[in-house]
């Protein structure tokens, strides 16, 4: 049986769940206005532990771009093996969180020379490249760095294709490695990214095979490569289910074991998997209307804010309410004046009122990271659930707080609605 069949036969669907209850959301809402992104540091820790367990022996370098929030980077310092940075600003953010510079890997294959100069000044020692011009830049500005060749992966089952803009083809790899070595550069290995939100681990099978071919070809020319960076791509559930992480990683591990020696250094750069499900957006209904017979609900976060991932990350987020009632067709829209600021047209919700809370799970990756100030709406703040509820240790999805009395809740909602 081939790998693809083995993978698809076993799929257990996993969709995003909220990581806090409505009671906890209401409680957090007492000390800060909505919208806010409720981050569980316990969830981040559990994601690191899961990946460490499912990818034994592989070093975990969190991809800063997914969410550079200082609270998350603080946890990465404690839990990660290193960090993937893709710009000077990300280097500074990681440094500010206390992550030592020798643990940083600059993963952007095409860099502004000033970015290289600044990163080298800070002490960054690892870079990536995928073309001849980058070799010349690195020779000039980072002659002592360790470098990895980024390759493109032709087979793609990912929502975000990361081999369109970057990556040398397999045929180009050896000439580029030769060229870099003859320019005195320290080529240490290969890096790839199968694409973000990868829905089937079969993409890694071809990526690993191509990497192995290049390792062999280089070895035959006397160039010993000793590092493989398998990038990110590890999926999380949104409205659609994805394979469980253990099914997903078992295919990767099996193929790594078949192709590479036991003692080889292997790095992974997960972004979405670490932070995506650790954050739930807490947002409120701030306006209502009926248009062409369909209810419209306007909420206090939108496409120019945390839902920017709908555009840039091609994500579809699930709205959760604790309201009861018959669910009908409706539209959920953001707060700005732009008509593009529509967040959902195909989710059925019960009748909502002004001030009602909506929870949106899976809002940690590529959300606030790409939010703007458009129309005067500032990006939504991140608040740590455990800091506010002080219920440590708590398990994911275990709601430690007694329900707020219904009367009290109605009073709060009324006050909020009156203030709008
Ligand atoms: C080089 C690189 N590494 C890692 C990541 C993180 O990928 P993911 O969030 O899919 O794990 C990205 C995402 O764009 C990337 O470009």
In words, what does this structure look like?
The chain is α/β, with parallel strands linked by helices. It has 2 domains: 42-275, TIM Barrel (Alpha-Beta Barrel); 279-419, Lyase, Ornithine Decarboxylase, Chain A, domain 1 (Beta Barrel). Helix content is 35%, strand content 18%. The protein has helices at residues 3-10, 22-31, 41-54, 70-79, 88-96, 113-122, 132-141, 170-182, 202-220, 245-259, 272-275, 308-312, 385-389, 406-419, and strands at residues 36-39, 59-63, 82-85, 104-106, 126-129, 146-150, 158-160, 186-191, 196-198, 227-229, 265-268, 279-291, 294-299, 331-333, 342-344, 357-360, 381-384. The strands form 3 sheets. The chain has an 8-stranded parallel barrel with strand order 2-3-4-5-6-8-10-11, surrounded by 5 helices. Strands 1, 12, 13, 14, 15, 16 and 17 form a 7-stranded mixed sheet that branches. It starts with a helix and ends with a helix. Bound molecules: pyridoxal-5'-phosphate. The site of pyridoxal-5'-phosphate has 18 residues, from helix 11.
Give a brief description.
35% of the residues lie in helices and 18% in strands. By secondary structure, the chain is an alpha/beta fold.
How many beta-strand runs?
17
* Beta-strand content estimate: 15-25%
Helix content: 25-40%
CATH class of the largest domain: Alpha Beta
List cofactors, ions and other ligands: pyridoxal-5'-phosphate
**Helix- and strand-based class?**
alpha/beta
Q: Which fold name fills CATH's third level, the topology of the largest domain?
A: TIM Barrel
Largest sheet: 8 strands, parallel, barrel
DSSP summary: helix tally: 14
